[in-house]
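Forwarding the complex inputs:
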Amino acid sequence: SAVISQKPSRDICQRGTSLTIQCQVDSQVTMMFWYRQQPGQSLTLIATANQGSEATYESGFVIDKFPISRPNLTFSTLTVSNMSPEDSSIYLCSVSTGDTQYFGPGTRLTVL
Amino acid sequence: AQTVTQSQPEMSVQEAETVTLSCTYDTSESNYYLFWYKQPPSRQMILVIRQEAYKQQNATENRFSVNFQKAAKSFSLKISDSQLGDTAMYFCAFGHSNSGYALNFGKGTSLLVTP
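Prediction (whole assembly, two chains):
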């Protein structure tokens, strides 16, 4: 397994601003993932982030809105840009160790 | 595209009883994995159990077991001797190697364990 931390754990932001979420893993991993969980909903994959390459985005998510960095094998950031109330969600990062994913504790974002 | 369907939005069970959560999926992949995750109110996603599609034997983890029917594309979770701490959202998920094991999730089943 892996121990994953996220910062911040929660935030309240004004519309039109941006927030960067950090994800730190206690071991080196090749693949990291970012998911969004809208209120009362399931998890939806935003993008896959491999170290040394551009993130791969799922349909409906674009780099301008959700830029991702992956500077090394233990760290990644997700930025939610130009936020609107519709971006209010829990954002979770996860890592793949072999064939199993482990999740961070999530960042609860509220946009006013 | 892979889809995961959980047809039970909510379920309730009494403490010490057994409950089964249903999940079906659709895929054209041959090498894949199935998972059940638990999400308590703390929102932490906790892996409950995993099953490799190539294994016929059903996975078991203490009080949790699965009934994996590959031909029917069914993957149900059985919780035995339910405990109050089992109260949570349960998500069924599908992953395969071609996507680096990125997961497709079902909509979830909210399980309430009552005294």
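The radius of gyration of chain A is 13 Å.
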